[in-house]
Write a structure and sequence with these properties.
The complex is a heterodimer. By secondary structure, chain A is an all-alpha fold. Chain A contains 20 helices and two strands. Chain A has helices at about 1-10, 10-30, 35-60, 80-105, 110-135, 140-155, 160-195, 200-205, 210-225, 235-240, 245-270, 275-300, 305-320, 320-325, 330-360, 375-390, 400-410, 420-440, 460-470, 475-480; strands spanning about 60-65, 75-80. By secondary structure, chain B is mainly alpha-helical. The longest helix of chain B has about 35 residues, at about 60-90. Chain B starts with a helix and ends in a 12-residue tail after the last helix. Classes of the chains: A mainly alpha, B mainly alpha. The interface of A and B includes residues 191 and 194 of A.
């Protein structure tokens, strides 16, 4: 009992920030032990995330003032439902990506330097993501966004060729514009109300031209960073050219960080504003992203670019939340978007990892040359199909439940036009996945491919199964997500048109 | 118009000059410098808007601006490192004849 009380009293979410930071720093001291240090950190973070989920279930949302300096002056960290779900998702997906990276970046391979740079950068991304989820003030959110971006840019350039370095540079400049625009909004809010704390701001903020300008600037900056159509131009080259584990990190975790900030702003800070027009604009851009991203994915010749465009499309779904969040549907869309983020993180990471294995097994990732490539790729194609189940949104995956809740919210608020968009997006996703599978199962004789190592086969499969079975165990994450959420009401699961 | 709003107005001007140059300049180094100009604009807005006349100086925005300057410095260093690497790679590959890669 005493042990349990002691464990519940620890601020686990603070450890989740300090662990990867410490791990990343220690890799510089012990450059020969990079991979073991990284993997141990991943294990410990996974354990810490489990503890913090238990803690949230037992005691509700927690806050921690860094250095015991309270709100207006100090930095307040807060672990509410959204934060803990994202911490747990990042820990789970990150752990599996770490397992895969052990095989993808062999320490004694022909390029040991890639492993040496991958682990510290990945731990920095991880620390930044974890700090971002629990940050409760606007400026700290800015700093954590920048930590994530800077490390992610360096990871993108890890491949080393001119296309990868060019993509990384474009990614860096684009994100810099996004974050400076966001920071300009923070400056306006501080000038008007003298605080950057989220909960204090939501109490004192009133609607006037200054705060509306700040809202517009912050939303624009975050849209650029979360790659919503038509600001997605930097995403496909960066995600397509990076090494496979890095693509998985970028697509599954990093693009969602800016979106989490946007969710916090929308549902907490600017909740009292009249934002119908903005919501419809975001909804229209989201719909355009779904259609455009899926159509572009259909046209790609390379597997990793196809998956990257699929990410562009999936980001669109996240932005349908804003127009659909009415008075009685707020809890529904909140649940839907969190389920969607978790499902997409698992599914998309699995797709990129399996694409990396295919690339290493076959020596390329051209879709048209995968025709009947023999046993090893056949198995991998099945794993790819399993991963895409949640991206398409077939039951019983988490993606299915998220889309179902979004459809319910669209019907409940009487905005039927979002229903065909959601359904068309699913149909197009099925089309681009089937295109890959149809090539892989053609009956053409080919040379026998080398068998890939076991550590590169099992992690993607594990992630697929999590994504696939998430729908069956959706109650757990939904309950956690609604703890301390800034929304009230019921989760609508059965609406009739 | 008091002194501080002049600074804020100058900050807004710098922000938009930087934004314009970032999109329409073709040289990589100009783009990196443009991002720095944009950052300076934001910091000037921060300092210029916050202090109301007659009050004592608020240290919080200054701390924030210092943090922002460090972040921008890191980004500039990373961008220049990547730009140099890109130039070396383009020189190695003779097929790429353009000296500056354009990110239009």
């Amino acid at each position: 009992m005493i042990l349990a009380d002691f464990l519940l009293a620890q601020p686990w979410f603070v450890w989740l920030i300090l662990l990867p930071l410490g791990g990343a720093a220690s890799t510089f001291v012990l450059p020969r032990r990079v991979a073991p240090i990284g993997f141990c950190c991943a294990l410990l973070i996974l354990a810490g995330a489990v503890f913090s989920v238990c803690q949230l279930a037992a005691t509700g949302s927690l806050t921690q003032a860094a250095g015991h300096w309270s709100a207006p002056l100090g930095i307040v960290l807060r672990a509410d439902g959204l934060a803990v779900v994202m911490l747990a998702t990042t820990a789970g997906v990150g752990f599996i990506i770490s397992c895969y990276a052990l095989g993808y970046f062999p320490a004694r391979g022909h390029e040991p330097s890639r492993a040496r740079y991958f682990w510290p950068l990945w731990l920095f991304v991880w620390a930044g993501c974890n700090a971002l989820y629990v940050s409760a003030d606007l400026f700290n959110l800015y700093v954590t966004l920048e930590i994530v971006t800077l490390a992610a840019v360096a990871l993108t350039a890890l491949e080393g060729g001119a296309p990868a370095v060019g993509a990384a540079l474009r990614y860096l400049l684009t994100s810099l514009v996004g974050s400076l625009t966001y920071l300009a909004g923070v400056a306006l809010l501080y000038a008007g109300w003298g605080t950057v704390d989220l909960s204090l701001l939501s109490q004192v903020l009133t609607e006037d031209p200054l705060s509306r300008t700040a809202m517009a600037l912050m939303i624009c900056g975050l849209l650029l960073k979360s790659a919503l159509f038509p600001l997605h131009f930097w995403l496909p080259p960066a995600h397509g050219k990076a090494p496979a584990p890095v693509s998985a990190i970028l697509s599954a975790l990093v693009v969602k960080t800016a979106y989490v900030v946007l969710l916090r702003l929308w549902f907490e800070v600017f909740a009292s504003f009249d934002r119908a027009m903005t919501a419809h604009l975001l909804g229209a851009l989201g719909s355009a992203a779904i259609i455009w991203g899926s159509l572009m994915a259909l046209r790609q010749e390379r597997l990793k670019l196809l998956i990257a465009y699929s990410t562009v499309a999936q980001i669109g779904y996240l932005f349908l939340v804003f127009p659909l969040a009415g008075a009685e549907t707020a809890a529904t869309v909140w649940t839907a978007v969190i389920l969607f983020m978790v499902a997409h993180a698992c599914g998309k990471a699995a797709m990129f990892l399996v694409a990396g294995t295919i690339q290493q097994t076959a020596g390329h990732d051209r879709i048209s040359q995968m025709a009947g490539a023999g046993g090893p790729i056949g198995v991998l194609a099945v794993v790819f199909a399993l991963a895409s189940v949640t991206i398409i949104g077939l039951p019983p995956s988490g993606g299915f439940f998220a889309k179902w809740l979004l459809l319910n919210a669209a019907l409940a608020t009487g905005q039927w036009w979002y229903c065909p968009v959601i359904l068309t997006g699913s149909l197009l996703a099925a089309a681009y996945v089937t295109r890959v599978l149809s090539w892989a199962f053609l009956d053409v004789r080919r040379n026998v491919c080398p068998v890939s190592s076991r550590v590169m086969k099992w992690p993607p499969l594990a992630l697929c199964l999590v994504a696939l079975l998430l729908g069956l165990a959706a109650y757990g994450p939904v309950r956690v997500a609604l703890t301390g959420a800034p929304v009230t009401g019921h989760v609508l699961v059965e609406q009739r048109p | 118009m008091n002194d501080l709003s002049v600074y804020a107005a100058a900050g807004i001007l710098l922000f938009f000059i930087g934004l314009y140059a970032l999109f329409f300049r073709r040289q990589l180094l100009s783009k990196i410098l443009a991002a720095n100009v944009m950052g300076s604009g934001v910091f000037l807005i921060f300092i210029g808007l916050v202090k109301q006349p007659g009050q004592s100086t608020d240290p919080v925005p200054q701390a924030m601006v210092l943090t922002g300057i460090i972040v921008t410095l890191c980004f500039t260093a990373a961008a220049i490192a990547l730009a140099i690497r890109l130039k070396e790679l383009n020189e190695e590959h003779h097929s790429a004849t353009r000296p500056e890669d354009d990110f239009g």
